[in-house]
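Continuing the series of single-chain predictions for the mutant panel. This is the parent chain; the variants come on the following pages.
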Amino acid sequence: MNEELLDRYAELIVGFGANVQPDQVVAVEAPPEAAPLVHRIVRLAYERGARYVDVVYFDALVKRLRVELSAEDSLSWVPPWLGRRMLDLGELDAARMCSPRSSRRDS
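Parent structure:
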């Protein structure tokens, strides 16, 4: 993808969509192939004064392997830290950015 276009998307996401403020915690969720855009988002968030940027990559293949290979009775289990992470981010008034593919929490 065009480097200039990625920069413009990042500016739109950080500056207008999330309106990142100084000292704010920022959470970014994206598929691995979005890494070039994520790197720009992280850079801009820190340039705007973010306290910390937490990046989580949602890998659909990893989720698929779990469904295919793990014990069926384990599929309903969700790690407790996933829920705590969301609650903690909410308590911090974190800005949260995610791609449509990473916005669902398949476990």
